Every structure is written in structure tokens, then in C-alpha cells.
Amino acid sequence: MPAEHVPKPYTLLAIDDDPQSLIVLSKTLTTEYEVLLAKSSERGLALARSACPDLIILDILMPEMDGFQVLSELKSHPATASIPVIFLTSRSSVEDERMGLLLGAADYIAKPISPPVVLARVATQLGYRNKPLHDLQPVAEPSAGSDMRDGFISALALQLAGNRQIRLEALLDTLSILLDGSVTQSDSAAFRNAACLALMGLNQPGSRIDQALAHSRVLIEEILARAEPEDRILNLAWKITHAETVLKGPCSPATWEHLPHSARLFALALNYHLHLLQASTDDLSSRHAQAMRQMYQQPGFEQCIAGGPEPLSAALLRSSQTFLDR
After folding, report:
1. 1 within a domain of the structure (yes/no)
2. What is the number of other CB atoms lying within 10 angstroms of the CB of residue 183?
3. Which residue in 199, 223, 224, 227 sits closest to 212, CA to CA?
4. Residue 121 belongs to a domain with what CATH number?
5. pLDDT tens column, 127-149
6. What is the CATH number of the domain that holds 239?
7. Residue 218 has what DSSP assignment?
8. Which of 210, 295, 198, 276 lies closest to 246, judged by CA?
9. pTM of the model
């Protein structure tokens, strides 16, 4: 009688139109993992949705849909959005890596395939997936990971600057003003960078901001696998994304109290900013007054803002006129 199949703890999916690559990946991985193979993008997407693998290895250069398109499709569906994806590529360029990170890739493996490298990268991703985020810790000095993060922030800022849902420069200025009036002294530059990272999900076409924040939280976790897990700005960005709780609808005082302070401040900034951008025949001053009233109604406004509302209102109106009254 054939030996009984013993299920393995993780299921992996490899998507590549090159049969030889699939053979190498299968031989490399089947001793430790359940392995599914797909020779086309369409088949790979179908398997990803039906089997919900723990990790996907995805070739970039494929006919019909390339790896970037497949990754974007995976990230746009809740059932597959959180699956870590490792790109498999014969190309090596900064632009490919930047694009992959923007879309949510967790890592890269270069061809020709090295079995030890594949096993190490896969083990790293699966091990990281089960670890909680570390608490915020200061980074002593710049490193390769922080350089990557800073470059990523710059690339995101360029892309988000033209997003129709927000005016990034005005939103970040609003956040800085709220930070100046906050009960907690914070690093404004770090908050601005973290806020940019928290909005990376707006690169997904048609997503609402609350959906974008939830999507960004998944992407930030994946980026942390490639950078320092103690990275202060990335962890701060992850906390900021919890502002989605407020944006989904009315928020109870109990829910508000359980949100990280950074998420509360970002929710206030977004709430104010989005009301300013609403289509209306009212002038900017009237929209500002309405946005301030909405901010006052947030259940924890007094606990977040130390100063009186009048100076805050005046500062926000000046900022809005600078960026929006054109």
C-alpha cells in the first residue's frame, strides 16, 4: 500500500510560464511544503482564490498578464490581499523593485534559481507572517533598510500628489498643525512620512480611503519583512492606518479610546481634509467652518488637542487657503 500522505503545515503557489522553473521550484519546496503549480497568470489567480495559499512565488515576465498585473489583481481582492508574494525575476533593476514594493511584493528571488536562496526567503516570509509587530524603537543611525524606506516614501509622495481623493500637501500640513496642538509632543517629520506610507493603498484604483488604510496595513507588514522590524516610521505608519475605524462611520467613545493616539490624530486630519474637498457651492471659509464642526464632534477631540479650538481653527484656515483657495 502507498504511504499515507501527511499534510504539511504550509501551502505554496508558484506561478511561472517556464516549465523548467516550475520543476526546480517543485523539487526544492515539496520536501517541506505543499506546492501548487500554475503555468499561466489566469490559472495562478484561480488557484490563489480557491486554495488560499500561505505564500505565492510569482514570475514577473509572463505573457498576457505580467507579474505586476497579477500582483495588483491579488491585492485588490480581500481573499488574496494578505498573501505574501515573492517575485521571481531574471531582471534586476531598482525600478522593478520600486514598482513591486508599491504594489505590495514582499521579496525578490533572482533567476537562475538557487534552491538554498528559495528555501531561505520562503522560510523568512512564513516565519515573519506569524510574528506580531514590534513596539516602536528609535533607529540609531541610517541603514540600507531605512534608505529603502525613505526612497519608498519619496516615490509614494510623487504618486499620491496627483490623487483625486486627497490633496497630499494640504493634508500633511493639516496633520502638522494638529500635532503642534496635540497633548502629546511628536516628531512632525516622522508623522508626515508615516502618513504618506499609510496612504499607499490609494494606488489601488477606486478604493475608498478607509479601504486604502486597511490595505496599507498589510503592505506595511510586508515591507517590514525587508526592512528593520524596529523601524520607527514604518511602525508608526502601521498604527496610523487604524484610523480606518473612524472613517467607516460613527465611532463610539470606547472605540476611540482604544485607538492609538497617532491614529486618532490622523483621523481628525483626514476628517477635516475630506470635508474641505467635498463638492459644494460654498466658499472655502464656509467649508472650513463645517469641517471644524465635524472635528469638534469627534468623541475624543478634547483628549487629543491641548490648546483651545480658536487658534487651531485659525491655523487650519490659513493652511487651507494656502493650498486650496486657488
Report:
1. no
2. 12
3. 199
4. 3.40.50.2300
5. 755 544 333 333 344 454 566 67
6. 1.10.3210.10
7. H
8. 210
9. 0.56
169 or 15: which carries more pLDDT confidence? 15
What is the DSSP secondary-structure string of 154-182? Answer: HHHHHHHTT-TT--HHHHHHHHHHHHHTB
Rounded to the nearest 10 degrees, what angle do helices 232-240 and 209-224 cross at? 150
Picking from 85, 98, 69, 182, the residue whose alpha carbon sits closest to that of residue 126 is 85
Q: 131 or 176, which is more confident?
A: 176
Under a CB-based contact definition with an 8 Å cutoff, are residues 86 and 122 in contact?
yes
Give me the pLDDT at residue 321, please. 87
Three-state secondary-structure class, residue 151: helix
Instruction: Supply the DSSP symbol for 37.
Output: E
Report d(CA 45, CA 225) in Å as an integer.
24
Alpha-carbon Rg for the chain in angstroms: 22
Task: Give the integer Cα–Cα distance in Å for 318 and 314.
Answer: 6
Q: Same domain, yes or no, for 240 and 103?
A: no
**3-class secondary-structure state, position 198:** helix
Residue 83, in any domain of the structure: yes
Domain count, the chain: 2
Q: How far apart are CA 154 and CA 52, in angstroms?
A: 33
Q: In what order do the strands lie in the sheet with 34-38?
A: 34-38, 11-15, 55-59, 85-89, 107-110
Query: What is the C-alpha to C-alpha distance for residues 121 and 128, in angstroms, rounded to an integer?
Result: 11
CB 323 within 8 A of CB 311: no
The answer to the question of residue 137 being in a domain is no
Instruction: Please write the tens of the pLDDT for every residue from 15-43.
Output: 999 999 999 999 999 988 999 999 999 99
- The residue range of the domain holding 50 is 11-129
- Do 205 and 94 sit in the same domain of this protein? no
Which of 245, 244, 215, 220 minimizes the C-alpha distance to 233?
A: 220
Rounded CA-CA distance 51/250 in Å is 36
